[in-house]
Amino acid sequence: MTRVKGGVTAQKRRTNILKRAKGYRGVRSKKERYAHEALMRAGRYAFAHRKDKKTDFRQLWIVRLNAAIRENGHKSYSTFIAKLKKQGIALDRKTLATFAAEHPIIFARIAKQVA
Q1: In whole angstroms, what is the distance from residue 15 CA to residue 24 CA?
Q2: Which domain holds residue 84?
Q3: 58-73 burial code (b ≥16 CB/10 A, e <16)
């Protein structure tokens, strides 16, 4: 079997790692080993935080809704959501929070209908 030298492939791999680590601080953007470590760690955090982002946004929507609900004369967020479900109004929290923040008149109508 003929000998295969991996110089070109190895150099390409190193170049790609360093390109992806561009902008990292210090040695993490200069040395292949540290750049690779930083990229692996960044990838783990990116995966975990994509999941966390969904929770963070849901919490934000609930806070916004709670403030708007209390302004419109309801007791609390939980009772409002319970009444909403009982009435059969199928609006999710994201939509309701958007109405509360950007279209308060529409949200007031929804709140009045739920009462």
Answers
A1: 15
A2: 8-114
A3: eeebbebbbebbeebe
Query: Residue 47: what residue type?
Result: F
Number of domains in the chain: 1
**Which domain CATH number covers 75?**
1.10.1900.20
81/69 Cα distance (integer angstroms): 10
The tens digit of pLDDT for each residue in 46-100 reads 999 999 999 999 999 999 999 999 999 999 999 999 999 999 989 999 999 999 9
Phi, psi dihedral angles at 29 (to 5 degrees): -110, 0
The predicted pLDDT at position 4 comes to 86
Helical H runs in the chain? Answer: 7-20, 32-71, 77-87, 93-102, 104-114
Torsion angle defined by CA atoms of residues 104, 107, 109 and 114, in that order, rounded to the nearest 10 degrees: -150
Q: What is this structure's pTM?
A: 0.72
